[in-house]
Design a protein that fits this description.
The chain is of the alpha/beta class. It folds into 2 domains: 192 residues, Glycogen Phosphorylase B (Rossmann fold, 3-Layer(aba) Sandwich); 181 residues, Rossmann fold (3-Layer(aba) Sandwich). Helices cover 35% and strands 14% of the residues. The strands form 2 sheets. Strands 3-2-1-4-5-6 form a 6-stranded parallel β-sheet, with helices on both faces. Helix 10 links the parallel strand 10 and strand 11. Helix 2 packs across helix 10 and helix 7 runs parallel beside helix 8. The longest helix is centred in the N-terminal third of the chain and has 18 residues. It starts with 11 loop residues before the first helix and ends in an 8-residue tail after the last helix.
């Protein structure tokens, strides 16, 4: 019988819950003896549900695996189950036929209230009984590595259920690979997609399509800035308030960059990031043109603003991953999270991750952790100098 320490979930509490769930269900389902199981399927899947009710950056990290699946199964109907706050990252993705949403409030650290039971039940019933032209789901896959996503796969009614072992409830899966905590997230997503028939991973670049209307909106929003000046975009927001380099450091880096050369500064983010973005804009001062757009752009328009910029400074966040997707050089500043897991994009000369030495192991998801997570080792002067070098470089933005 397994012990809680045998599970691969990051947190001790999550490992305890996973162990307790398996212990409770073992009389009904049994526990698989082999951590790797694969069932032979006689025909390609016609309708597939990918489950990732997560944040914007997480969905962008999943997009290379989704592309590999689409290339291997060009005639399948591939649908994504996302959270309402993450779904915009997948809208317009040419590799998806549909994006569905479910309010998985347990994945949103800013929300304290539980999911609405009636809406959650309605979403589950819709998964089970929504039969498209291709019929019910042939396969469902948990791309996150969470026992609640395994339950969502079960609720879909799909006979093939793929995901990770060693996270709890793997007995409910028909196809599984072990969750390797040190494998980066692009690789993890692809490992599960391979269970559904995906081929080689191909390019390590997130997929995000910026619609023309968003480009037009970005041009309108940026019109007050002087023409001809390179734009340095600053996104100081974060999903986790304790995982931020800090508004003062972002503002100082922007001031030092402006002292090096004539630039325009744009601060942006979600409505919740407004105070941080406004504080950075207010602190820059001097004769530098500054424009704060926080709360005024949806995700597509924000991506267009980033594309129009010459460099982006950001925390490890969805905005940083968006910059990689649209081809803008980016400096992503990491604290509790680990760039070895979350930042394995190609071209590290333009997609730069900065992480100072931390006194606690990464990733650290403890909001009460007293560690500095290496933030103080990253100085605004170093960030400004790096941004200046990125502005000097002449990059050709690659096609998605």
């Amino acid at each position: 019988m397994r012990r809680p320490s045998d599970y691969a979930n990051y947190g001790a509490r999550a490992r305890q819950i996973a162990w307790a769930l398996d212990l409770a269900l073992s009389p009904l389902t049994g526990l698989p003896a082999d951590p790797l199981k694969r069932r032979a399927w006689s025909a390609p899947h016609r309708r597939i549900l990918l489950i990732r009710p997560d944040h914007i950056g997480d969905l962008l990290l999943a997009s290379p695996a989704i592309r590999a699946l689409r290339r291997a199964l060009p005639h399948a109907r591939i649908e994504l189950l996302a959270s309402p706050w993450g779904a915009p990252a997948a809208l317009g993705n040419p590799d998806l036929d549909r994006v569905r949403t479910i309010e998985a409030a347990w994945f949103e650290p800013r929300r304290s209230e539980p999911p609405d039971p009636s809406r959650l039940i309605g979403s589950l019933l819709s998964l089970r009984f929504d039969r498209g032209e291709e019929g019910p789901y042939d396969a469902a896959a948990d791309l996150r590595g969470d026992f609640r996503s395994v339950l969502l796969a079960l609720a879909s009614g799909a006979p093939c259920r793929a995901g990770f072992s060693r996270i709890g409830l793997e007995a409910l899966l028909t196809d599984a690979v072990p969750l390797e905590p040190r494998l980066d997230w692009i690789g993890r997503n692809h490992a599960v997609a391979v269970l559904l028939g995906a081929g080689p991973l191909g390019a390590r670049r997130p997929v995000f399509v910026v619609p023309e209307r968003a480009e037009q909106e970005a041009r309108r929003l940026l019109a007050p800035l002087p023409a001809g000046r390179p734009i340095a975009a600053v996104y100081p927001g974060t999903n986790r308030p304790w995982a931020s380099w800090g508004t003062e450091r972002f503002a100082e880096a922007a001031r030092l960059l402006a002292a090096r050369r004539p630039v325009a500064i744009v601060t942006d983010g979600r409505e919740a990031d407004g105070p941080a973005a406004e504080a950075v804009a207010a602190a820059i001062g001097g004769g530098t043109p500054v424009l704060s757009l926080a709360g005024r752009t949806g995700l597509a328009a924000a991506a267009a603003v980033i594309r129009a910029s010459s460099v982006l400074l950001a925390n490890d966040s969805g905005a940083a991953h968006l910059a990689v997707a649209v081809g803008t050089p980016v400096i992503a500043i990491f604290g509790p999270t680990d760039p070895a897991l979350y930042w394995t994009w190609a071209d590290p000369e333009r997609n730069v991750a900065l992480a100072g030495r931390s006194s606690c192991a990464r990733p650290c998801f403890r909001s009460w952790c007293p560690a500095d997570h290496g933030y103080s080792a990253i100085t605004p002067a170093d960030v400004a100098a790096l941004a200046d070098r990125l502005l000097d470089a002449r990059f050709v933005k690659a096609e998605v």
